[in-house]
Amino acid sequence: MWAIGVYDFGLSSEQFWDLTPPQFAALSDRHDDRNQRDEFYSANVASIIANCHRDEKSRPKPYTPKDFMPSYAAEEEAQATPGDMSPDAILTYLKAAFPPREVKEDHG
């Protein structure tokens, strides 16, 4: 893992290991912000292209960059509470979390 941090932060191994926990947290936050900004730039281009080719009858609402940002969708999903979810969404979630088990009959 330390090699990833060294590469991602652009630090030498010595610089990386000299970081204090607050310094590491600050660098990590800046790294996350940069990744989110880069993701937004790509998503913005994707939404523009998608809107140029969008069938307004089948999708009247234009695409937004957030529609093309996996981190945003994961963030929204993580913040959803059972009270915010429809019964169908809860059922889908439960079916995915607890798939049916095969019952093996013992004819012993």
Short overview:
With 108 residues, the chain is mostly helical. 61% of the residues lie in helices and 0% in strands. The radius of gyration is 22 Å and the shape is flat.
Relevant terms:
single chain, 108 residues, mainly alpha
Structural notes for this entry:
The chain has helices spanning 2-9, 13-17, 21-52, 70-79, 87-97. The chain is an all-alpha fold. The protein has one domain (20-97). The model has no long low-confidence stretch (mean pLDDT 80).
| Class from helix and strand fractions | mainly alpha
Query: Which spans have pLDDT < 50 for at least 5 consecutive residues?
Result: none
**Mean pLDDT across all residues, rounded?**
80
Strand elements, count = 0
Task: Set down the secondary structure blueprint.
Blueprint: H1 2-9, H2 13-17, H3 21-52, H4 70-79, H5 87-97
